[in-house]
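Researcher: Last one for today. Full complex below.
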Amino acid sequence: MKRALEDLLKTALTQLQTDGWLAADITLPAVVVERTRDRSHGDFACTVALALAKAAKRKPREIAVALQERLPIDARVVRTEVAGAGFLNFFLAANAYQSIINQALTLAENFGRSDLGAGRLVQVEFVSANPTGPLHVGHGRGAAYGSVVAALLAAVGFRVHREYYVNDAGRQMDILATSIWLRYLELCGESFRFPANGYQGNYVWDIAATLHRIHGDGLRIAADEVFAAIPEDAPNAEEQAAGIGPAGDKEAHIDGLIERAKQCLGEMRYRTVFDGGLTSIIADIRDDLAHFGVEYDEWYSERSLTERGKVTEAIERLKAAGYLYHKDGAWWFRSSDFGDEKDRVMVRENGQSTYFASDIAYHLEKLARGFDWVVDIWGADHHGYVPRIKAALTALGEDANRLRVMLVQFAILYRNGARMQMSTRSGEFVTLRELRKEVGKDAARFFYVMRSSEQHMDFDLDLAKSQSNDNPVYYCQYAHARVCSVFRTMAEKGLTWDRENALNHLDRLTEDHEQVLLATLARYPATIEAAALSYAPQLLATYLRELANDFHTLYNAHTFLVDDAPLRDARLALIAAVRQALGNGLSLLGVSAPDKM
RNA sequence: GCGCCCAUAGCUCAGAUGGAUAGAGCGUUGGCCUCCGGAGCCAAAGGUCAGAGGUUCGAAUCCUCUUGGGCGCGCCA
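Model: Here's the assembly. Have a good evening.
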């Protein structure tokens, strides 16, 4: 419809020039038609007269009137008016929106989908939490946001590749492996002080127990031998509170233990422990996300990059291009030449490449894998990372615009009006699994995406759990269930719905509430488009609340199951179409649309 | 100290590419009502869009500065 009006206006504009009303050498501004906010301004409005005023040296209203006079006739437009400073408003025929009903009913689950993306291939990488423990609530927002962005892009015709980057290399994983082994040693009967910097969570015990079940005492080394000549540890949280404990360096201590584990176990057996922890935690994360409605096309291993020489290759390419230099025994990338704050180390003094180096390799691989572009969804704490990755891509002649990084701000959980403390260090963090069990998948997902991703959000646990109209999830689902209920009641009354008859009598929908609901329903496809193209799920969430609201308002004002059959059929068609939009929209958000509640 | 992000009604937040009188829900106040599905309906009050400049026909939206908050500034990942 928007497009049609824009065409009418373009015709009128060129007519102005051929008439000589407007100088032919004026460059015409883009014709933009937008939906009005206020219904008294009609259905659509155009501001081109305002934009043209200066170049044309005419008053905006004069231009608008001239345009109005030259607009081609269109049956869908009942009336136009020039208003305000020079707005040209369009009033559509009452039946202009009616076709949306048939469209929704006919397309059914495809209602709202389009082929805007034309099959272009887009990768969406999200969550990608280190596999060193269960996901916590901080990951939940990225998980919900990423999966909805992916679903939206798919809905508008992109081929979407959902990916989880598994950081299965690096020091954190070594700390996990060592933590598991130490717990295993305890299960074998060894006793010692567990390192302050080790992973404290109960899941470490669980993995160690599995290891013990499989290997018995096969991986056991005497504690004295393990801890011999290891640098002293620092106090753990409890000791620090009590003012006791060793006075060393926890980093040096754990690094020493990692080295010792590798020596004692040898490469093969160390790898056994390491992989045991990795696969166990990945399996747990995968299960957790699946229950949260998040599925991936690929779990991409960081270690595989190294094994295939991709990290070395990336370093060599930068070196060959002249962007690396040697200083203090390390290799530095000149990222400051490309807008980064400072240069970054690629290869450490000890010869190990940094995480940054493998991340460059990973992003080069992403671009090389044939995606038209890639979307990274990161926690806001990684924002400083964006310039350096883009710097590396630019330095290597890649188009950094093919990488789009979306930063998701943190969510703060509230219970009984009080902020919940979340400390990842102590192991007391709220896990995503706990959140899901407490408020349910539907509410958790909806709450996470109903706010703009760049906005800090307060997550009200009590509201998310409540079964009342105050709860936006419940409110939307309830609207869906209510439509289903009307159809059940209809059947109980021995009535049937005649869809053909309904479509022939849509002009019976003359009530204000019906017109409002119809106009809102008609916005559904455009909402999906906007939400997808701007990676903004909250546009859809907000829309669904509006649609549900307009439906509930109509429901409270009028009875659907009236004796007048044509009117009844028409109303049922309207609400059936609304149900379709609600169901499709909720499905994109990964939220269920129940038939009864 | 430097950098990125944020600031909208009492609260939680919408306001996609600058458009007309800045919206919703909750809460507050007043009046109705009990209907297909759990209480609903109608109305009112409530705002210097953090502050100050600027850009232009027009700014919550873009630019600069100030204030306040979040985050980041490792040869960690």
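The CA atoms of residues 530 and 536 of chain A lie 8 Å apart. Chain A has a mean pLDDT of 89.
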